[in-house]
């Protein structure tokens, strides 16, 4: 018995068990060692008590019931691990080959990948996992960006609150607001009138009316902050119109406190006709200088479809003088309409009123609409350009004229 125990100890201490544990065979050796130890104990018991008998049938049933289950479990687990490892290797190979494969794949997904009926089904399943992974990454990125924007808005709000809490800034803002209001009140008595024609509601959509009101709000704020503001008149203004509703949305309670004149009368009934000048881009007459004795009219229209001649026709119907800004005289204009927004017109007129300099005033024209300022009128530049072209062509000009005459004669014969 002692020799048997020594034998078992040697087996347990030997490197057989670590090797078996590494290769998934530890469960196979444990029942074997248990049977050896049990058999040796039984032999010892028989030697000590020869009268006692061993129930061999019960012992066989116990051993048969235990061993097949353990062996079957280990074999199935080993097979499953080997198939999953092979599937993971194929997925890695497909990733290296540049196919659409997810970066992270779980064991359950590997099992479904192995259970696919064909190779094309496996490819489609991996592509589905890849697309779902991309969607998750995109959602995570969007959430991070929203979080960052939220933090930025909170920081800006905190900075704005700190600025509002600053007593000096609050005092400065209130004092400047009083000064601007005082200037606007003076302009209502002594200032030069500027008329906004509010009779274009039928020619615009609801969105265009809202855009026009937004531009007039900017114009009123710019006029109120200027050194010498205009006395603004809203003529042909009707209550419960789209203009009125949009103004109330912007100003709310301050709408009744604005230092402007609002009337439903036409400007021809309020001012003499000989002093009125309608500013329109369709006018054939070009405005040369700013006249402080005249009353300029600006049409309150935002026309996305660019309906040409609407304001010019209205001015002619009323028998008013018209004028257009000298854009081509001072700017090298690009291709496009010469329509400006209402707040840009306000900036230009205020600059002309204060300085009389067209170059400073036309700096408020958007730079995308022109190439730059010109020192000479555009028609003179065109003459010089044609002269340069003729000098460059030289003797070839006669040849080109002859070729053009031949082509023109061919066209006539075809007709």
- Count the DSSP helices: 16
Distance between the termini: 127 Å
What is the CATH-assigned architecture of the domain at 191-372? Answer: 3-Layer(aba) Sandwich
* Rg over C-alpha atoms, rounded to the nearest angstrom: 46 Å
Largest sheet, spatial ordering of strands: 3-2-1-5-4-6
Shape: elongated
Offer a concise description of the structure.
This protein is of the alpha/beta class and 415 residues long. The chain contains 16 helices and eight strands. Among the domains are: 182 residues, Alpha/beta knot (3-Layer(aba) Sandwich), CATH 3.40.1280; 32 residues.
Verbal overview:
The protein has 415 residues and is an alpha/beta fold. It has helices at residues 2-13, 16-22, 26-48, 56-96, 107-114, 119-165, 167-190, 206-225, 242-251, 267-270, 310-318, 327-330, 342-354, 358-361, 378-393, 396-414; strands spanning 193-197, 231-235, 261-262, 276-279, 295-299, 321-323, 331-333, 370-373. It is built from 16 helices and eight strands. Among the domains are: 191-372, Alpha/beta knot (3-Layer(aba) Sandwich), CATH 3.40.1280; 376-407. The longest helix is centred in the middle third of the chain and has 47 residues, at 119-165. It is elongated. The strands form two sheets. It has a six-stranded parallel β-sheet with strand order 3-2-1-5-4-6. The N and C termini lie far apart (127 Å).
